[in-house]
Amino acid sequence: MSDTPLIQINNLDKSYTNNNKTVQVLNNINFDIKKGETIAILGQSGCGKSTLLNIIGGFITANYGNVYFDGEEVIRPGRKSVMLFQNYGLLPWRSVMKNVELGLEGINLTSKQRRERALRYLNMVGLEDKTDLFPRQLSGGMQQRVAIARALAIEPKLLLMDEPFGALDTFNRYNLQDELLKIQEKAETTIVLVTHDIDEAIYLSDRVMVMSKEPGEIQRAVKIEIGKPRDRSGDDFQYYRKLILNEFHLSGTKPPIEYNI
Questions:
Q1: In angstroms, rounded to a whole number, what is the distance separating the alpha carbons of residues 153 and 34?
Q2: From CA 20, how far away is CA 162, in angstroms rounded?
Q3: How far apart are CA 243 and CA 206, in angstroms?
Q4: Which class is domain 5-80+157-250?
Q5: Is the pTM of this model over 0.70?
């Protein structure tokens, strides 16, 4: 992991006006993200974490402050970053291969080059034998792996993930979390993950940004100093779990929903 910041987030404020009433969603958000780092933005519903993710990706503009990506101010979405949602976004009439190739169709590649690159990333997520199947023929976990392969095939510097495993059962979610760790190590992609699952944040990330709400602020940045992959039942893991839970108790808010067997 490089010490050079890939993302710089400076003094972000965001508010919305509805029926002549202004609601501040984010207040004075400041942090950097290093190249190759995985950051979790953790908080309960309504704290502005998805809004923050969308500002980082250039899908929403802040009222005040700036985001810099690779030294350039973010003012619109770009090909250097990709957003991955929990609803997968696969086209049902396209095969697995054609879904992964979709993001490559605007790039100056031959059809053979597109297929080779798509196959490389399908192999990375363990679906090289499912290329001719359609989304309806896949499990939810497999569909999410196709979506991850499609996002990575563009070879972005930044992968933005908005609760991508929230709709999956516990076992599929754990398996995909392990797959994501392997993929991130191979592709060296920087990841920003929005979640309300404390265990997921600790398991996947290098740092956890704990957000309070009304307005959303970074209450505490927690550096997770445990090697990967991590033992969810280990003392070190439980230490960080208790530390983060305590942050929510200190703020007077209910902790985020957690998923445990």
A1: 22
A2: 30
A3: 15
A4: alpha beta
A5: yes
Helix (H/G/I), strand (E/B), else coil: 123: helix
What is the DSSP code (8-state) at residue 22? E
Delimiting residues of CATH 3.40.50.300 domain(s) in the chain? 5-80+157-250
| CA-wise closest residue to 90 among 145, 130, 132, 129 | 145
d(CA 97, CA 16): 40
* Sign of the dihedral defined by the CA atoms of residues 40, 29, 47, 253, in that order: positive
Distance CA 59, CA 228 (A): 32
- DSSP secondary structure code for residue 138 in this structure: S
Instruction: Provide the H-helix boundaries in 20-169.
Output: 49-57, 96-101, 111-124, 140-153
Where residue 256 falls among pLDDT bands split at 50, 70, 90? low
What would the two tokens of residue 175 be?
């398996």
